[in-house]
Amino acid sequence: QKEVEQDPGPLSVPEGAIVSLNCTYSNSAFQYFMWYRQYSRKGPELLMYTYSSGNKEDGRFTAQVDKSSKYISLFIRDSQPSDSATYLCAMRRVDTDKLIFGTGTRLQVFP
Amino acid sequence: DAGVTQSPTHLIKTRGQQVTLRCSPKSGHDTVSWYQQALGQGPQFIFQYYEEEERQRGNFPDRFSGHQFPNYSSELNVNALLLGDSALYLCASSLDGNQPQHFGDGTRLSIL
């Protein structure tokens, strides 16, 4: 069993929809949680960075962490075709810098 | 403000050869981590360098080695290349590791 599970998709939605992306994990020692966006032939771009449980909002993006359920989510409001990319969740323990990634979810937003 | 830069962008090698990939961290960052991303997978941690020393290592054989220079730039060396080493190699930098890691666009390595 992988430490971090993420549905690979693809997830296809119309422009303007609310998108929900999720990851589950098994290691209760994870304390830092991140979401990266990766366009084709590019490196991962940091979208959200959170510590422990709770919500964090940045523009159209909201990250949620539920440590009791070992479940994290990224919500994208008013999705745009430019949001079409692969979204990677990542997490780490407090005593290491090693990031553990999910496999990524491919998102397609069509006009 | 320059981000993380990697070179070359694409490299083709044959089995058994050796390769060196290069990374310049984001301005102000002193820690460099290397990841391997196979097609359709998330990045896998190879190792991290801080103060010119390897600080942490993932589950990769010692064919994978690295170096960090006094200006914080870094190299990843892979010896005795195997077909399975074909992947996107990503460099990430951060400030003393305990901050978010920012990635470059990677080097795509193809082994024939």
Characterise this structure.
The complex is a heterodimer of chains A (111) and B (112). With 111 residues, chain A is mainly β. Chain A has one domain: Immunoglobulins (Immunoglobulin-like). Chain A contains no helices and eleven strands. In chain A, strands 2, 4, 5, 9, 10 and 11 form a six-stranded mixed β-sheet that branches. The radius of gyration of chain A is 13 Å and the shape is globular. Chain B has 112 residues and is an all-beta fold. Chain B has one domain (5-26, 40-111): Immunoglobulin-like. Chain B contains no helices and eleven strands. Chain B has strands spanning 5-7, 10-13, 19-24, 31-37, 44-50, 53-57, 64-68, 74-78, 87-94, 102-103, 107-111. In chain B, the strands form two sheets. In chain B, strands 2, 4, 5, 6, 9, 10 and 11 form a seven-stranded mixed β-sheet that branches. In chain B, strands 1-3-8-7 form a four-stranded antiparallel β-sheet, with no helix packed on it. In chain B, β7 (64-68) and β8 form a beta hairpin. Chain B is globular, with a radius of gyration of 13 Å. Chains A and B meet through β5 and β10 of A and β4, β5, β9 and β10 of B.
